[in-house]
Design a protein that fits this description.
The chain is of the alpha/beta class. It contains 6 helices and 7 strands; from the N terminus they run βαβαβααβαβαββ. Strands 2-1-3-4-5 form a 5-stranded parallel beta sheet, with helices on both faces. A two-stranded antiparallel ribbon has the order 6-7.
Length: 210
């Protein structure tokens, strides 16, 4: 069945690879930047099946201003707040706007990120503002998980490896991972149901602490 898929993020090689994968499987991919209003074409769609927040593609004004080897202590706070407003708040607003269309589709919300989105201190990223934005979107989607899971929504969070060549051999590409169905049995406790846990995984289905 042809699926309508919306990717909210900036254009980068991973977004292109993912769009090509979905297109090869007969799906239609739409893209909208988080810092721009939802396009008229997307607003006119009857339904959306997947909404993917491509946080790994975020472009940070504050990080671009850092000197080489700069840390969060040197980050321009005003620029970081502009980053947050553009990307984190933008994702929130677009996701809320798309909920009526998602309710008519597969009801699945996904994040395409990388392991540096951990909420733990991670000074080695060299991109503190982007790191903060990715962690914030994780927490935001966790709140949507708590709110929407009773309606039957499902959630996926995929960590890229950072390899410019793409997904390692033998790993699930993001598109395939986002379409996986996890185990669910209403008779079991939530801890025994994969669908009842919002977790970050890589293409080998390894769980990553965040």
């Amino acid at each position: 069945m042809n699926k309508n898929i919306l990717v909210i993020g900036c254009s980068d090689p991973e977004a292109i690879r993912m769009a090509d994968w979905f297109a090869a499987h007969g799906d239609t991919v739409y893209q909208n930047r988080p810092d721009e209003p939802l396009s008229a074409e997307i607003s006119a769609l009857d339904h959306l099946d997947l909404l993917i927040l491509h946080t790994a593609s975020f472009e940070s004004e504050a990080d671009a201003m850092l000197p080489e080897g700069g840390t969060i202590l040197q980050m321009d706070d005003a620029a970081a707040m502009r980053d947050y407003d553009r990307y984190v708040c933008g994702c929130f607003e677009l996701l809320e706007q798309c909920l009526p269309q998602l309710r008519k589709g597969l009801k699945r919300i996904c994040i395409l990120t990388d392991a540096t989105c951990s909420i733990r201190s991670n000074p080695g990223t060299g991109a503190p503002s982007k790191h903060i934005m990715m962690a914030a979107v994780n927490d935001m989607v966790k709140l949507f998980f708590n709110r929407l899971r009773p309606e039957g929504f499902t959630f996926r969070n995929y960590a890229l490896t950072g390899d410019p060549a793409g997904v390692p051999q033998g790993a699930f590409p993001p598109g395939a991972f986002f379409l996986l169905d996890f185990c669910y049995d209403a008779r079991e406790l939530p801890i025994h149901n994969e669908e009842e846990r919002f977790v970050l995984k890589d293409g080998f289905l390894n769980e990553i602490a965040w």
